[in-house]
Amino acid sequence: MGLQATTSQTVGPFFQIGLARFYIDDLTGPGVSGEKIEIEGRVFDGAGEPVPDGVIEIWQADAQGKYAHTESSRELEGIEENDSHAKEHAQAQRGLGAFRGFGRVPTQADGSFRFKTIKPGRVPAPDGTLQAPHIAVSIFTRGLLRRLVTRIYFPDEPSNAEDFTLKLVEVGRRHTLIAKKLHDRRLEWNVVLQGADETVFFDC
Amino acid sequence: MMQSMAKFRGYRRADPGTQPDHLHPPYVSSVKRAPSKPLVCLPHTLSEVTGPSFDSFAIDVKASDLTRQHAGEPVGERIIVRGRVLDEDARPAAHTLIEVWQANAAGRYRHNVDQHNAPLDPNFEGSGHTLTDEHGNFRFITIRPGAYPWRNHYNAWRPAHIHFSVFGPAFATRLITQMYFPGDALLPFDPIFNCTADEKARNRLISIFDWETTVCEQALGYRFDIILSGRDSTPWEK
């Protein structure tokens, strides 16, 4: 018998005290290459009211489809767990780039949030295909006893049709995961926590 | 490529009842915010088995001692909270970021939304962070937080608690939770503490009074271990 994961609890209304130090709304910066984009949106509850006390975290690959993480290398995926020498070598080869891939912002009084980042590259899926470009999202708010997990995909992406994860979602709900183009580099992606046009959330 | 993919491993899912459902009507705020449609099961991909690291950030030692962030000492009962961050196979989560926040000894948060008429403490911010060491150990010095009223139902009071945010090695292991104190008379009445069906699972949110952590003539010690999802033992197969 192993241990059992600790049970989740709500972030509550006062998370700003603890989480503000690592608010990161701009993932671009010196040395970060790729297509710069801005993603903005609002979070709504089941009554259509904005959620002013939520915090959104994003995690994404860089423009080349690499995560700033030691497991992010196709080489590494092929190395057996017990082959530690080969794994260390592959990790040393990789190193960490300028792009860290993590963002965190609170929602504002009108439920809005905004990130500046770069469009991520494609990363491998477990079945050997390449995933469509996407951003992994965690949502925490007062009232949510555990986080909600969802994804942001990009409009005008032919690869969406073949995406490993999107294919698991019923066709009529996929649009909730795909950002809308506002203009040039600005994208809109809203979150509906509950109701008819509820955003697709994943059991992660 | 197909050959290498056969070795891909995700993280384990929670045992039934050990994590809260999104909808828990006694906690009124969940009623309009819990999703109404079933969650879509997401087989973990590289996006979920990777995650952010913070070990290159400069972490101030003072950030883990909440009693020394101002000129004077905060009012209240000084305590030490110590623990380890492990996965379900007891492997330590090394160098992972832990963030904490809490009310002061009077039960008041330093936050503009908190309208409780208890006093603020000019010497207490109520927030801290640290990185675990290579064995997953962490340690905070703080003040025992007070209970405070909220408007969930008539005469509702939250038991004393400290909020904990932990990353672990992957997006899949991200966890935010709350630590409680042993013997708190409010625990049986708190809809947030009681949102988890499995009694043993929710009781693990109660820290353990610990003589080994207690420092003579300084502070009582409490132990709170945080367990994150473990890695699947068998590779994902198509």
Q: What is the β-strand count of chain A?
A: 10
* Nearest-integer average pLDDT of chain A: 90
What is the CATH class name of the largest domain in chain A?
A: Mainly Beta
The end-to-end distance of chain B, rounded to whole angstroms, is: 13 Å
Note the main sheet of chain B. 5 strands, mixed
At the fold tier of CATH, the topology name of chain B is: Protocatechuate 3,4-Dioxygenase, subunit A
Features:
heterodimer, A: 204 residues, mainly beta, Protocatechuate 3,4-Dioxygenase, subunit A, 2 domains, four-stranded antiparallel sheet, 10 strands, B: 238 residues, five-stranded mixed sheet, 3 helices
Q: What do these coordinates show?
A:
With 204 residues, chain A is mainly β. Chain A has two domains: 16-63 and 101-192, Protocatechuate 3,4-Dioxygenase, subunit A (Sandwich), CATH 2.60.130; 71-98, no CATH class. Chain A contains three helices and ten strands; from the N terminus they run αββααββββββββ. Chain A starts with 15 loop residues before the first helix and ends with a strand. Chain B has helices at 2-5, 46-49, 199-203, and strands at residues 40-41, 78-87, 97-102, 127-131, 137-143, 148-150, 156-158, 161-166, 175-180, 208-209, 220-223, 226-228. The longest helix of chain B is centred in the last third of the chain and has 5 residues, at 199-203. In chain B, strands 2, 5, 10, 11 and 12 form a five-stranded mixed sheet that branches. Chain B has 238 residues and is mainly beta. At the A-B interface, helix 1, strand 5, strand 6 and strand 10 of A face helix 1, strand 1, helix 2, strand 3 and strand 4 of B. Strand 10 (202-203) of chain A pairs parallel with strand 1 (40-41) of chain B.
